[in-house]
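Why does residue order matter? Because the sequence determines the fold. Keep that principle in mind as you read this record.
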Amino acid sequence: MQVSPVGLLPEPSCHDHLLPNVKLLNIVVGVDGSQTSWRAVSMAAGIARREGGVIHACFVLHVPATAEMGVFAVPVPTLPGDDDADVLRSEVMRELAQAGVEGGFACRRGDIARELEALAEACQADMVVVGRSRHPNLHLGAAPRRLLAMGKRPVLVVP
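Structure:
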C-alpha cells in the first residue's frame, strides 16, 4: 500500500490504465454449445469473478428470416428443440457454479445478434461476450460482426 496525503491507496494494477473506473457488473454471454462459445462462457465467468459481476448466458435458437415471415423459399432444416436448451442450461449453470459466479440462463428465438442485444439492453449489460466463428477462414461470424456494428456496448469476441 502506498501512503498519500489522503491516506492509504491500493497498489496500482498493471491494467488500471486500460479501463479506469469501469466495472463490468452485468455480462451477457452467447452460448450455443460450440467450443468457442464454451471459451466465451469461461472468459465471461473469469471477468465476472474478478469484477464481482453477474453472468446472463443466452442461447438463441436461430430462426431464418424466411421462417419468421412464414415464407419457405428453400427447405428449412429442423431446428433444435427445448431439450438442447435444457442441456445447455444445466451445463452453463454448472460452469458458473464451479467458477463461483452468480448468473442465469435465457433461451430466445430469432436473430442471434438482435436477441443478445435485446437481453443486454434489458439487463443493462456492461459487456457482451461471444465466441468467434466456427469456420476456420472467418475471424468473425455474422452475430459478432453485427453486435460490433450496433456499437451499443463493448463486445468481446473470444477465439
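Helices lie at 35-51, 65-69, 82-99, 112-122, 142-150.
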